[in-house]
Amino acid sequence: MQLTKNRVRDGLHCMKFNQMNLLKHLRLRHFLIAGLTWPMAGLFALASCANNENPNKTMTSLTSTADTAGKTTNGVKTDTATFGTGCFWCTEALFQQLEGVLKVTSGYSGGHVANPTYEEVCSMTTGHAEVIQVVYDPAAISYDELLEVFWKTHDPTTPNRQGNDVGPQYRSVIFFHSEEQGAKAAHYKAELDKSGAFDHPIVTAIEPYKNFYPAENYHQDYFNKNGSQPYCYYVIRPKVEKFQKVFKNKLRHNN
Asked: 5-248: which CATH architecture?
């Protein structure tokens, strides 16, 4: 059974999965067997997801409205973080569980095409990366803590790639919303490189935030809505379970 996103919706797939057959199956088996532990105190790169094209487009630019830094939501002063760690299905499922995170939206950021479709982003011509936009309460969780989750839940050493997902839309990237965020991201990147936490140099891009376009509706809250599907059950769920063990002290109380 091919546990890839292109099997989730009939007849729709991104070109990078045209060649997924026995090799994909073997790589998935390797992940499920070998990825059961978190070496280096949790600095284990969680395998990334595949992709799928969206037929039901509901797209609105959040270029000017998504940056909620310093805004107030229901009496809570909020801030915003934007991270690209590969497939947003998996990343969203992790950050949603953190205490202090108020909202996570999957989308596209950093490119030059306004209101891109998922198919356009997969074509690798838009300049956009798959990202999550995180609105959080800085009194409950700090940007430093979000960065810790960022570094520990993907491989920041592979240019334009996360696992079997290949292309610039899967690049490791931090879009900072303030000079303070940018400075912290650069500091931790330098310290991790210096410490030898990873076997290879970190290639994560650190760029000023300039735009964000939410992904199509069916991408949003994907794991929570489709947890029983084979891909979610066999690929995303193990990552979530490991995440819950490593970050158990940072989870929402109702998890």
From this structure: 2-Layer Sandwich (3.30)
